[in-house]
Design a protein that fits this description.
17 helices
């Protein structure tokens, strides 16, 4: 039986009066597709290959074009969307916590603590590219903004999004490297396990047992910390969280029809600003930042965020025109199981590309990697659509909920017994 997308049915939840708004699930599902397209080049080990190795693939020429287009349309844009949606979700959780008083905030912090644990386990034992742990830790600061005015929220958000430019300019002028201690420890573990520049791209493909994979994950976790420091990711994510928090506070997702003029303006402005600068950003990224680190950071700011906001506005506008468009159903089902599907993408990556799986890593061009990523997303979405016809939550969402509230919730839909 199809589920109408104007508003998905109420789900059993500790917050009995809450409703799922389809647009949030659709956007979350779309963000998962973009994240798969962004992450699978690393799952496949393509990202780790030398220029000589990638040029040896028969698809090298088209891969170069695809890589450029990936920087233009994907890189940073869907993580922007995902971060905004997390901020919106946090606003809903905190709003419910405020209604419950002090006990509500204990539940909120417990929820974030459990998500931190999930992210840590994902980072250390499955895939080094985890983002959940960072999201959960930064989410702990959001209650501090619950009484801030709308203007203060947006001011803080703007300042946090702009701050990385100043940091990169300072680093460029002073010739310092904040991630040096982390790099030192990463080199230590690489030396300890025999991971070298020559075998780095092939280690996970050639490791035929989990022990070898885990050794790579240890240094990979440090690489992830280095990426957060180099990219000033915590400031960017927190800024996007606050914008999402503002959107959630105003319940803009519940009033799309009246916001149509604003959404049209946002879409046009985001495309007009973000698209041309994304082309320049892609050129800069493909050519090792020829204008310098700070200039590249500026290009990131004026390309990634506007285009990410345009994606959100564009989807909302199309949803208003065709709320029952069939692909929206798959996006919505996938989005309702976002945590399970996000971790699931990592398991698919291991199964397809690593030595303990099919050993296909470092063996194909980027175009094939992205086709596999799309196929994985479609399979997960179809599975989600079947699962949610019988169950109320994704498996990890269900476990997360029970650990948060310390009690058991039914998994099967009404009429079935668990």
């Amino acid at each position: 039986m199809a589920i109408p997308l104007t508003k998905i049915q109420k789900s059993a939840s500790p917050v009995r009066t809450s409703e799922r708004f389809a647009i949030l699930d659709i956007l979350r599902g779309l963000a998962l597709l973009g994240i798969a397209l962004a992450n699978f080049p690393e799952f496949s080990l393509y990202t780790f290959l030398s220029a000589e190795a990638t040029q040896a693939f028969p698809t090298a020429r088209i891969d170069s074009v695809v890589r450029f287009l990936q920087y233009v349309f994907i890189d940073g844009k869907f993580y922007t969307l995902f971060s905004l949606l997390f901020g919106i979700g946090f606003s809903i959780i905190i709003s419910n916590a405020i209604k419950k008083g002090a006990n509500g905030f204990r539940i909120f912090y417990r929820r974030m603590g459990i998500l931190t644990l999930i992210g840590f386990l994902h980072l250390m034992f499955i895939w080094s590219g985890d983002i959940l742990m960072l999201y959960a830790l930064l989410g702990l600061f959001l209650p501090l903004f619950r009484n801030a005015s709308d203007r203060a929220l947006l001011t803080w958000a703007g300042a946090l999004l702009f701050l990385p430019i100043l940091i990169d300019l300072f680093i460029e002028i002073r010739h310092i490297y904040p991630a040096t201690p982390v790099v030192h420890w990463q080199h230590y573990y690489c030396a300890k396990y025999g991971i070298t520049e020559e075998n780095f791209a092939y280690w996970l493909r050639d490791a035929d047992n989990y022990q070898g994979m885990f050794e790579f994950l240890i240094q990979g976790a440090l690489v992830r910390v280095q990426e957060f420091i180099d990219g000033n990711r915590y400031f960017k994510v927190m800024g996007l969280f606050l914008i999402g928090f503002y959107i959630g506070r105003k319940r803009m997702y519940a009033d799309l029809e009246n916001l149509k003029p604003f959404l049209k303006q946002l879409f046009r402005a985001g495309m007009l600003i973000g698209l041309p600068y994304s082309v320049l950003y892609a050129w800069s990224a493909m050519n090792q930042h020829p204008f310098g680190l700070a200039a590249h950071s500026v290009l990131y700011c004026i390309s990634v965020y506007p285009l990410g906001f345009a994606y959100m506005a564009g989807v909302c506008l199309f949803f208003l025109r065709k709320p029952d468009w069939k692909p929206f159903h798959l996006f919505a089902f996938s989005g309702r199981m976002a945590l399970s599907n996000y971790i699931g993408q990592s398991l698919w990556g291991i199964a397809i590309f690593y030595g303990i799986g099919l050993e296909l890593g470092a063996s194909m061009g980027l175009i094939y990697v992205l086709l596999i990523a799309t196929g994985v997303y479609i399979i997960e979405s179809l599975f989600s659509s079947v699962w949610l016809r019988h169950f109320q939550f994704g498996l990890l969402e269900w476990i997360w909920r029970m650990l948060t509230y310390g009690k058991r919730f039914p998994l099967y839909t009404s009429g079935n017994k668990f």
